[in-house]
Amino acid sequence: MPRTKVAVGDVQSNIRRGGDVRTLLSPATVGATTGFMGVATIRPGEAVTEHYHPYSDEFVYLVRGALTVRLDGEPVTLAAGESLLVDRNVRHRLENHGTEEVFIVFHLCPLAPRPDLGHVDTEPLPNPEAPHGTGLKDRP
Questions:
Q1: Structural domains of the chain in order of their starting residue, each with its CATH number
Q2: Which residues contact 58 (CB under 8 A, 6 or more apart)?
Q3: Gap between the Cα atoms of 64 and 133, Å rounded
Q4: What is the pTM of this model?
Q5: DSSP secondary structure, 25-70, as one string
Q6: pLDDT in tens, 24-57
Q7: Which helix (H) or strand (E) holds 83?
Q8: Which residue from 107, 105, 121, 95 is spatially nearest to 43, judged by alpha carbons?
Q9: Which of 57, 70, 80, 100 is the most exposed place for a label (fewest CB within 10 A)?
């Protein structure tokens, strides 16, 4: 697969767990083999439901807004310009209790042995029937 740059508008949105999550650089989009990177937008009052990654560490960088990340139920507050490491197997939930939209950049590595093993959900999904949004949109 040829290497390519990927814009936010080039990828499908994933709203299954809440928020608008877009995986930008991944095995499906650029042939990545060690991890994946993306962005998420979380509106005021929204959350990305609790889950954990049994094979991957997650790096979160908050670009805009104020974010509460619950790590195994304990709240950690992030302000714009701050980052957080979420170790593998740590349950985490991303919550926007502010009045401004939250925008984060995230990176997970290493990859799970198979995509279906990458996330373990620990609470009901708000949009379980929504597409996974892991690939590129059709380009003209």
A1: 38-121 (2.60.120.10)
A2: 85, 86, 92, 106, 107, 108
A3: 23
A4: 0.91
A5: ESHHHH--SS-EEEEEEE-TT-EEEEEE-SS-EEEEEEEESEEEEE
A6: 999 988 999 999 999 999 999 999 999 999 999 9
A7: strand 83-86
A8: 95
A9: 100
